[in-house]
Each structure stands twice: as C-alpha cells, then as structure tokens.
Specification:
It is a single chain. The chain is an alpha+beta fold. The chain folds into 4 domains: 33 residues, no CATH class; 133 residues, FAS1 domain (Roll); 157 residues, FAS1 domain (Roll), CATH 2.30.180.10; 227 residues, Sandwich (Jelly Rolls), CATH 2.60.120.260. It is 20% helix and 28% strand. Strands 18, 19, 21, 22, 24, 28, 29 and 31 form an 8-stranded antiparallel β-sheet that branches. It has a 7-stranded mixed β-sheet with strand order 2-1-7-6-5-4-3. Strands 20, 23, 25, 26, 27 and 30 form a 6-stranded antiparallel β-sheet that branches. Helix 3 crosses helix 6 and helix 8 crosses helix 11. The longest helix is centred in the first third of the chain and has 11 residues. The protein is globular and about 105 Å long. It starts with 10 loop residues before the first helix and ends in a 23-residue tail after the last strand. 37% of the residues are buried.
Length: 603
C-alpha cells in the first residue's frame, strides 16, 4: 500500500495550521492504491453481475470501506440464469429482484480481523450469513469447492480487495424454493430408504408447520433412515409406536406419540454442523425436552454424538451425526436437515447421581497420552470447547491458563500418596482469583430435569491449597440463573469428623469423596442445591470473590450432582474410578492391602 501525505490544500490553510500551534502534528491522509471489490470485478470482466449490482443500488456497498466476501457469477452463468427465469437481459430485472440476487451472494464479515478465503473453508456452512440472512455452504469435491450445492469456485481464487475478497463462481446461487424445498417438501422427496421416517412424519401432524416459511423462524430436522430403525430392532411403524409407548407411557394416543416423536427431532433454530460442534444441548419442540451433543476426537475428524448419557459407571452410547451424508447440512427454505445414524427419541428417566470428572473435556481426552503418567497440557481461553474463562489483563501466562496434569494411579500401598487421591490420577490446575482467572463456566454432563424442577445437591471435590473464596451459579436456558448459597474458601482444611462422623460432617457441608483414606487436604465441599427443569447439559459458573494470592494455583478433581433424596456420602470413589460402598473395608479399597486380622470374638 502506498502512502501520500497532503500537507496543505492551499497556502493560507497551511499557514493557519502552523500558526495555531507549533506542537501539533500535520495530519497524514492515507490514500490506498488497492482496489475495491467492484473495481476488481471490472478487471475480471464480470460485467453482467456488475450490472445487477448497479440495478440493485448496492454497488456502493461493495465500493465502500468494510470487510466483505462476494461470490460473483461469470457472465455465462448470469446469462444462463436469466434464460431459466424467463428474462432476456439483466435490464429486465426489477430493483427488488436484483437486490435479492446480490444479497444472496454477498457476505458481511463482521469480524474485521477475519477473511473468508478458500484456504479456511470447511465442509458445511460458512462462518457468516449473507445479506439475505441465510448461510451459504461449502463442500470440497476433489480439487474443486462447491458453494451451496450449486456452483463451483473458478480461477483465479481468493481475489483480494481493499474491502474483502472476490470469489468467482460458475453458477448463480439461488435460495431454496419455498414450495419445493421446504423441510416438509424435502422429507417427502426422500428415497424409499427413509420410508419409515416419512410414514411417521406424515402421521405426526408436523408437516404443515415444517412447510411454513416465516422469515427468521428457522427449524432444524434430524432425519434417520430405515437402517437406523433396524439397528434398534424396529422394522415397521407399529413396532416404533410400541417402542414409543414403552419410553413415554403417559401418552396413549398413537398420533400424539408420533407428534412428540417428530417434534423431538426438531429444534427451533438453524443447526448446521458448525453450530453442533459447539452446542451442548438444544431445545426441541417438545416442552422441557432437549437433544444433547458431545464430541469425540479421532485423528482429524470430530465425531458428534446425540444423547450420550452416563448412568453411574456405565455409558449409554450416543447416536452419531452422519457428517458425510449427502443429507448433512441440507439447507431448506425454512431451515436445515441433518441425518443421524440411529434412533433418537424421548425417554422418561428418573434422576440419578452424576460424578463428573472435569478433566474429561473433548480436547483433553483427545491427547495422545491422556491419563498416562506424566501427561500435561496447558490451555488458553478458546482452546477448550466446553470450558470458557476470562482473566485479568496483564496476568502472567501460567495464571491465565487452565492446566491438565496426570500423575500415577498407585498400584500398591508403597506408591499411595494420601494427599493425592485424584480419581484416575488426573486433575485440572488453575488460579481462580480476581487478579487472575475472574470466572470460569463449564458445560455439565446431562442432568435429568422435570417440569417442577429436579433438585440436586452440588459438591466440588478438590485438593486444599488455593486461597480463594468462590461463589457458584447454575445456568440453564430459558430460566433465571441460580446462585448457590455457599461461598466457600478453598484453603480450609476438611474437619477430622468427616471420616468418623460422616452424617454430622455432611450437615456442615463436608464429606469424603475418596474411598481409601481420610486426609484433611482431600476435600469435598457442598456448594448448594440446584433445580433442573430441562433434561440436558447446562452451565456451572465458578467465580472468585477475592484477590489473595495471584501466583497460587489449585487443583480441582471432580464435581458431583446428587439428587437430594439420595445418599450424599456413599458411594465414594477410589483412585481407579470405581464406586465403593460402605460394605468394603478401607484395606479392600484400591490400592488393596492386607487387612488386619479381626481379633474380635463373639462370646
């Protein structure tokens, strides 16, 4: 970029500047020789689309300061499109028609530091909507890149302008037709391999709703094929209805069962793969019922699982999102369709205890040596998809980060350290302090909710070290935040009666969570009671209230959510992650040791 300095417009103005203050700098006006998007279109002979820009009145937009991406069709593409819609020349387009075309091809890159270039494209929707409020999609096809399943990007690619990038495409992009490409129309056009879902869809009474086009009222429908039903042992609609009745016995009417079934497959928003990669749960069209999403990393791919559920020490497998299907990110006039590789449905469940090892984050579990002795990793804000945090500006790097560490799970008593009874040997280390990490929010595992609110006691399990007072909030979409009542001091030692009088200690808000041996620095502290109204994944926020020792870090091992009517003390957990009841003697808890001989005799 060249720079030119304008030191004066006229001699008298220069004199006035000099006289006003000898300390003031002369203004430097920077004039750029870089071309705007419309000027580059002229160079690339994209005259037909330039004419559409002129008719639309939007040429001034792509000639103005900003950060845009324009997908401009070639002249041949425009001429072909005009023939398809019965127009002879671009001059036959009205202002409104021309504006609609331009708005669909033009994106405003709201992040001024970002750019939309082909090197950053990933299969799925683009990061920014177009001026029409819709998302364009991309798909890599060998060396080619297809936009919106319609057009290919042609050379030259990624033409840089002073106000964004110009991409040349070989077809005019058109939005989905409101009659033939609504969600309902697309479902009805599915092949015979989706016959059971189509039959349930028609019986559900949802077709009219999902055929409606209301601006801004988007829907996402998750579809499944006959193979998905067969894998669940379902071969016809009668068997599906019987299965639904088993899982939701309160509903007897068949059509109501099917209505809830399809409504549970529908979320009232756009949910492309890019959105699901960061979602923890989404509300469906069934009141208080959500779909949950977890991620697993394998090589370079990220697997998205729906409704994976941990029940105690067992896991109910999630249902994979079929990201490679032709039906993935299938844009419709009123939303988007996604395909899943299994049968998703509502299941009425009772609340259960959740022992959440907070080191089980997708990015941490993807580490090559996860839970191997010596594994360590440092994470900055934005590195973890399910933990977000903010630190005070100027905080030293180590205090800005969340650190993962894994020690050694002892194999015998000689290696057992009673002050380091971390479950699986690993933990997160961080500094919650007003002078360091000022708040941290974590996506919880699935918690079972109910319309009246399911109550859980929340316990945090950690090593006593960090001198910090912390308050906790529980957040769930659509409801007021719940501020838990106890602000606790992480530097306090756990009372000795936690081991000898566990019921009394529980009343005072303490308990042992580790099963092997009491130690005053291995702590579980009650944060308070929450009410969960929707089954799904929610948010727990930890927030320090003090600024005490900025250089100090502390270790957090686990957070427990236990229904209030259940035993809060048992089961405990050994260092290998096994749940242990009161029937086991400490010597029988891992690491196992020789139990002392019982010399008690019964007279």
């Amino acid at each position: 970029m060249k720079k030119k300095s304008l030191f004066s417009f006229v001699a008298t103005f220069a004199m006035l500047l000099a006289m006003s203050s000898c300390e003031k700098d002369v203004m430097e006006i920077v004039i750029s020789d870089d071309k705007q998007i419309d000027e580059l279109m002229e160079e690339q002979d994209l005259t037909a689309f330039l004419s559409i820009l002129d008719i639309s009145g939007m040429r001034s937009t792509v000639h103005a300061y900003g950060n845009y991406a324009l997908f401009a069709p070639t002249n041949d593409a425009v001429n072909t499109y005009l023939l398809q819609i019965g127009k002879t020349t671009v001059n036959d387009l009205s202002v409104q028609e021309a504006a609609a075309i331009v708005q669909y091809h033009l994106l405003n890159i709201s992040d001024k530091t970002d750019s939309l270039t082909t090197t950053g494209f990933v299969d799925g929707r683009m990061a920014y909507p177009n001026f029409a409020g819709s998302y364009l999609t991309t798909k890599q096809e060998g060396e080619d890149i297809r936009i919106n399943r319609q057009a290919l990007i042609v050379s030259p690619r990624d033409i840089k302008a002073s106000n964004g990038h110009l991409h040349i495409i070989d077809q005019v992009l058109t939005p989905p037709d409101t009659l033939t490409e609504s969600i309902t129309a697309r479902v009805r056009a599915l092949p015979a391999s989706f016959s059971m879902f189509k039959e349930a869809f028609e019986r559900s009474g949802m077709a009219d709703l999902l055929a409606t086009n209301v601006k801004g009222s988007w829907k996402t429908l998750f579809i499944q094929d006959n193979e998905a039903y067969a894998a669940s042992g379902i071969t016809n609609l009668a068997e599906l209805i019987a299965d639904l009745r088993t899982n939701t016995p309160a509903i007897e009417d068949e059509d109501s069962l099917l209505h809830n079934y399809i409504a549970y497959h529908t979320v009232p928003r756009l949910a492309y793969v890019a959105d699901l990669l960061s979602a923890s749960s989404l509300e469906t069209l069934v009141k208080n019922q959500v779909l949950t999403f977890t991620r697993q990393f394998a090589d370079t791919a990220t697997l998205i699982l729906l409704n994976e559920l941990k029940l105690g020490q067992t896991t109910e497998a999630g249902i994979p999102l079929d990201r490679t299907s032709v039906y993935a990110d299938w844009s419709c006039s009123n939303g988007v369709i996604q395909k899943v590789s299994g049968n998703i449905q509502i299941k009425i469940r009772s609340a259960y205890r959740v022992y959440w090892d907070i080191a089980e984050q997708p990015e941490i579990m993807a580490l090559r040596n996860f839970r191997k002795p010596g594994c360590a990793a440092d994470f900055n804000p934005g590195d973890l998809s399910e933990i977000t945090w903010e630190y005070k500006s100027g905080t030293p790097t180590a205090q800005q980060q969340i650190h993962y560490y894994c020690g050694t799970v002892p194999q015998n008593m000689a290696a057992f350290d009673e002050k380091s009874q971390y479950i699986y040997g690993d933990y997160l280390r961080l500094n919650l302090d007003l002078g360091a990490i000022r708040w941290m929010e974590m996506k919880t595992p699935v918690l079972i909710g109910s319309e009246e609110g399911t109550a859980y006691k929340v316990w945090i399990c950690y090593r006593r070290e960090l001198q910090c007072y912390i308050k906790t909030s529980f957040k769930q979409a659509g409801y007021d935040d719940q501020v838990l009542p106890y602000i606790f001091d992480m530097s306090l030692y756990m009372p000795s009666n936690t081991s000898t009088e566990p019921d009394l200690a529980e009343i005072e808000g303490w308990k042992m969570y580790n099963a092997k041996k009491y130690n005053s620095v291995v702590v579980s502290k009650l944060l308070g009671t929450i009410k969960v109204y929707t089954t799904g994944r929610h948010t727990l926020r930890l927030e320090p209230t003090t600024n005490r020792r900025v250089g100090q870090l502390g270790n957090i091992d686990m957070i427990q959510f236990i229904p209030i009517e259940e035993n809060q003390v048992w089961p405990r957990v050994d260092v290998k992650g096994n749940w242990v009841g009161p029937e086991l003697k400490p010597c029988e808890v891992w690491p196992i040791e020789e139990c002392p001989v019982d010399t008690t005799t019964i007279e």
